[in-house]
Design goal:
rod-shaped, mainly alpha, single chain, 110 residues
Length: 110
């Protein structure tokens, strides 16, 4: 019964979850690009004058990477709160019907 409820809720909220996961995937990809820039083979085969510029760019990208990680963390927290707030009414109905917190947690986990 719990799996049936979970599948029904997934189908009902598919658009919200799809946007959430696509945004997370995009954010992690951007984070990876910023962190993997300095380990590229083409970057390592540069002469000394270009290496100084590359080192400066890597330091700048390190700062941007920290900023992106904070934005990504904020995005994850905000999206989780948004999705839970959207489903509070549903959880209230389940509790009114006599479902315990353990069962509601299982529905969320599924």
């Amino acid at each position: 019964m719990l799996s049936k409820l979970s599948l029904k809720n997934i189908k009902k909220s598919f658009k919200d979850y799809a946007i959430y996961f696509l945004t997370l995937i995009l954010g992690v990809a951007i984070f990876y690009v910023f962190n993997a820039m300095d380990s590229q083979e083409a970057m390592m085969k540069m002469n000394d004058s270009k290496k100084q510029i590359l080192d400066l760019m890597n330091n700048l990208l390190g700062g941007v990477s920290v900023f992106v990680s904070f934005v990504l963390g904020f995005l994850i927290i905000y999206a989780n709160k948004f999705l839970i707030k959207k489903r509070k009414k549903e959880f209230g109905i389940y509790m009114t019907l006599g479902m315990g917190r353990a069962h509601i947690s299982k529905i969320l986990l599924l």
